[in-house]
Queue: 2 jobs
Job 1
Amino acid sequence: MTEPFSTTRRRLLQFGGAAGLAAAANSLAAPGAAAATASSRGPRTTVTDLGPAVVQYSLMSGLLVGDTVYIGSRNLAPARVIGFHLPTRKVVSVTDLDAAPDPTIQALAADPTGRYLYIGVLLKGDQGKPNLFRWDLTTPDKPAVGIGRTGADRDIRALAVAPDGTVYAVGGVTGTPPALWEYDPATGATTSLGVANPLATEAEAVAATDTAVFVGSGSVLVGGGDASKAALFAFDRTKRTFTSVVPKEMEQDPSLRCLGVVGGNLVVGTSGGVDPAKLAVMDLADLSSYTVVSVNGTTAKCFTADTDRIYFATDTGVYSYSLADKAVSAVEFDGPDLGEIWGVDHTDGKLEVVSAYGFVAEIDLAAGTSVITDLGTAGAPADAEAGMGIAAGGGYVYVGGTGTLARHDLRSGAVVNLRAPGEVKDAEVIGGRLYTGQYDALGIWEYDPRAGGQPHQIAQFPSVQNRPMDTSWDPANKLLLLGVQSDTEGGGALWTYAPRTGKSTSYVNPIDSVQLVAAVANRDGVAYLGGDNEAATGARGTVVAVDPVTGRELWRLETGQQKGVTALAVQGRHLYGLTRDGVLFVIDLHTRQLLHTADVSSVSRGYAALVTNRGTVYGVSITTLFRFHPKTFAVSTVVPGINGIWYSEPHVNAHDGKLYTLRGHNLVEVDDRPPR
């Protein structure tokens, strides 16, 4: 998708001094406001608005009801569901949800009559609003209505409707064991049925029959330590009790990812660790009778079936399981890469596949052909979505979205969406080429704008090292450095990649077995790693110096910070670090001592990012773009109220002396001349 650039959409804002900051705050809050200059003295800052960072119909769920595929949005505000009509290949209905903030729809389920579509929402925070909605599909012009909320279990990740119309929901939120929730359409009551697995960090799977509800859970996030591996429980709807029924072959997988009732079978998929994911087909009449097979990929999900086969998705494509010979085979077809798949349904010898790339693929199983329909072309309302990683260089700025990279041309202003599966967590431009760290467990990808085409994978690592956090280019060793988190096992890794040779290396747990590598910086061939810990207890805040060529530890320093490191940057002989509770610390790299600490929570709380530009360390938080004085380390505001809309952590990147980050949903270029 290409968005024509209009110079009228660029807004130039200049300000200096305290009065200028106030004027700029007012101007930034009003799109289209005229330029304002408050003072000719002191630092001068220019902010140029480059327009929405990433625009698409971003999605995270798909379900066929009748002749329409309903598709839930991701990272869009408001959250919405569209109805994609198969006979016409057009979007024929849309409903917006009154859910906030930053909502995403991962869970969809239909009642047995096909009249109601139930919608479960993921939220970044709880404002007391419903997270369970119902849309009457007989009156699609009327919006979905909120019908319930799952208490402290803020996120709904899976829904199921029993044959009698009772709705079941699971999900959870970090720090709270996930419960099974029940919505009774007769009474309108939403009730917790209790926690089946108190050691689980998340539940992503639920299925229901007349007599039982099945709950799948594990440690997709915040794993390691005592966190549960894959678990499957049957809830007796009459006795109101839970019983573990997990196949023993699945017990060591990190999590149970998906459940489905297909005929007389319960179909079970896991998220794999070092080993591939697994698929189990269990006899509902006798759950001890089952078959387990390994699949090609790290996740097995999105089950559907015909009379002979069960179809499902992994991160590598669409597959089928033969009920007769109990074998798995790839579904071959003539279409493009499907990327991350969020829906697979079977109808009349065809599969309807919902791709995070923003299209629906209809695959004719007999002919091996496909029809691809872009949802934007079909009428899906495209919006600016929450941003992810950001990188600038070679005349372009790249901003990550869901399944996409938006490439902004700094000369013409043209914006092109490139396909990149999963999520770009952070990125660097090196020699004109873009290098990205891709979540989930997708390694390192490369894109060369001079060659054209699409981004492609250049390095793969064990899937347990799944979440890239931070990137840094080491010019001395000519290595790309990436800090990584292991969601399922705890701890993390340092990845390195040499663009010249194509060699990649992974050093697992370079800080310790519980601290992820949340931040990476480098100077003179030494990599500096900052530790954090997603668990409630355990070590955090350690800084380790490492030789990135050998992985050998050179020295370490305990900063004593209780909230963990969120960002690092080097300027001169000083290593700057930020913590999640807004503490700046500075380490003298010559003496290897902690030189300075300060409370900077007025400009930075939670996750933040640091970058060095024009001899000064800059930072961005959710609220503010700021800088530190290179001699006194005093913090000052550069752009107040920047309020970038990020899916995860804020990012800032530098190129040719300019800074690039988000203000709201928009990409901005900041030209700042700091005082000396």
Job 2
Amino acid sequence: MSTTKAGTDRRVMTGADILVQSLVDHGVEVLFAYPGGCSMPLHQALTRQGDQLRTVLPRHEQGGAFAAQGYARSTGKVGVVMATSGPGATNLVTAIADAKLDSIPLICITGQVPTGVIGTDAFQETPIVEVCRGITKHHYLVTDIADLPRVMKEAFYIATTGRPGPVLIDIPKDVQQDTVEVDWDVPMDLPGYNPTPQPVAAEKVRQIAAAIRRARRPVIYAGGGIINSGASDQLRELVAKTGIPITTTVMGLGVYPGEDELSLDMLGMHGAAYANYAVRDCDLLIALGVRFDDRVTGRVQAFAKDAKIIHVDIDAAELNKNKVAHIPVCGDVAEVLTELNKIVEAPEDISEWVHHCQKLKQQHPFSYDESFDGILQQHAIRELYKATLEHDPYITVGVGQHQMWAAQFFKFRRPRTWHSSSGLGTMGFGLPAAMGVQAAHPGSLVIDIDGDGSFQMNIQELATCFCEKLPVKVFLLNNQHLGMVVQWEDRFMNRNRAHTYLGPIDHEEAKGPSDADRFAYASDRYPNFVTIAKGYGCGAATVRRKADLRGAIDEMIAYDGPFVLDVEVPYQEHVIPMIPSNGTVDDMILR
């Protein structure tokens, strides 16, 4: 836990200055903050702290919160966002819920109306603590300035320990303006909060090792908990020692090199067929830092139904919640793997099983129509992957078909380079998250792979990228439709278009362009994203011809500043494989 440089200094300070000094002392380097009436004292204090803390002004509070998430997801540090009361605070709600579901350490600071008028429906008053009670890890309404140093200590501790998550601090304007002689050494007061699990018993580790040694068809199933615990190296050591094939959740991409022969890539609804088949047929499933989400399991009773299940997670509430484990282990997955690697032995003979898994990869690869003379989304992402290999880029995505294709066709080699709104599935995540990643890694190539529907939900952050000199690249797969919803309409709703076309409507054909041509382009692309991007000061270009794609990608990468590459793609392409909701592997759609 950080201690302040002030030490025992008992200076008289305002609440706003105490908060800002606490941010500095806890190592915060970048803050995403949008000012308003009830947060003005905080912003005034920010101007007095010198250059220790960079304040980035987003163009929307939600954009700022997703940028803070991008910062946190790519560094493992706490992301911090600040907004004013009322609408400023409520604009953070979606990003707070997003951080809760994906276990992201996030501190959200909101101004509040003065304490004397709380509860009177004052101008720009919302009870934001009550609004967010169910979607935060913890929350504070600070009504006494003397509590502020303690609250700040506790907030950082809670956000980062155990299973990480978002903490909300709501500070009335008068508390920001009050003064107090600061006691920086005030102790935390968190009765009942014990984030560090007990060390896992040696006998439990031996049980895991014994189950692995006896297995004939084992599979490792790894998730975001591996990233949060910093356990990627230990996971790779386990795979090297045992030779067990490994699949990951969408949150776990990058924990194991995607191009390794033992990698089964992602499993689940739109995961690899070979991963899903392997999990169906395995006799031991080693689940590490996962929560058996419904998009992974489908009909949970049928998921890995013949397998013994080992489940390791730091959150005891996740054990046996969705899927009963034969060996449930509450513990830090990095510590458990460290101990396991000391004694684990490879299964006696799984060569036939490994060969079977590799054969499944050959029989059911991710594929698409490579003969199509336009640009398919899968082809675009594969070409982007090849073009950026030497740059070791960070990738963010919006939510929809493009998100799943990126997970399928972009191979990640290390953790914290893939950033997706996974649990909440929030459209509009990609661009502002990329903005936060770029602020954290100023010399790196950061690319937002986005869809036109998702991109427009936070398109205003192009202005932030330009003004703050954040050279984010947007690889925009533009099909003028809400593609994932269209896919469900096609598969399950007799192709009836229900407000999923984003282009201009011809009232004689009110549902949008004709579906007659399987690979038809939507006519008269709208809006003109090149014009919009250039209006924000960014570079931009459009590409439609397959032969021009690689050159356009190279132009995007080379551009000195933020850039939008508008890639025109057909709207009828589907993400395959697909396991229908509440279906099983045997219901998987393969073509």
